[in-house]
């Protein structure tokens, strides 16, 4: 067993064990990947203040996200194709999150279905949905989530039009993977991954195939996907989705204070400052740079969470100290999953928790729910002084 001390250790193992098309799917952004890179590098510009001779005993990372108890303010973000990174990946990630006491969010574009995850877990998870044209499919998706006792719904609002990710096009990304000489040659070197996939029946988009009109098998999925997303989306349409779901609602993909106010007005319980991990609009600012202006606009009226760029417990600490009341990891848990399955997701959570707890103590604080900017040194103009 290798010694895992940080998320990058898991990433190195993941890169060896996962097929190239799925590694590239996770580890890429759109176009030039500027936003993808700066989501993480911008955290490095924020420094922590070290404090001494302050009682740091009795520390707690426990808090609440949308009123639900969490062992630390870190949820597992919705990630499509998770079940291609590792056989039954969504189930394994959900189990790890449940045992650790943090939220797991299932993507609509998951390999394991809502029902699969519900059958293999004992506590409620969260369900992510896209803004699709098909009202019947959307209502049934929300109803399925309710039947599975999901305790929150998350609407992703930044995928009306898909950003181009060059690696996915070059690799011919699909689920199950297309069998070309190149892909088969690569997959033959990933023995552990291959044995896992041979041992599961879950190799297609479980929430779509057999549920969406006209999608009875994987071959009919691509045409449905190209037509399903609603480029005419507006806030009135989002209000219609709010009526379809009467539980806690989170809106993901907010990067502008004006959109944050709109999300507040449609009755969301929380918003997630997120640029889709740099996979949509390349050239947009990082999520952590966007956070201050959004906190100023709505931070006292709605929970503000942050996604995109979190790779460590210090990143979580910085986001919370800047006002966020929750954060999410996507790639960080996928690295663990692809490296070591459920145990790898658990290890990713342990790594982040330890760094969050230790860094919080060394900054002179003992309660993650009572952090503020006093523990940070933020460069002047960090949030931008734009024309």
From TrEMBL:
Flavoprotein listed as a keyword: yes
Protein name: L-lactate dehydrogenase (Cytochrome)
Domain FMN hydroxy acid dehydrogenase: 1-381
CDD domains associated with the record: alpha_hydroxyacid_oxid_FMN
Lineage, uppermost ranks: Bacteria, Pseudomonadati, Pseudomonadota, Alphaproteobacteria, Rhodobacterales
Coiled-coil spans in chain: none
Keywords (A to Z) from UniProt: Flavoprotein, FMN, Oxidoreductase
Binding site for glyoxylate: 25, 165, 276, 279
Family matches, as InterPro entries: Aldolase_TIM (IPR013785), Alpha-hydoxy_acid_DH_FMN (IPR012133), FMN-dep_DH (IPR000262), FMN_HAD (IPR037396), FMN_hydac_DH_AS (IPR008259)
Family: Belongs to the FMN-dependent alpha-hydroxy acid dehydrogenase family.
CC terms in the record's Gene Ontology section: plasma membrane
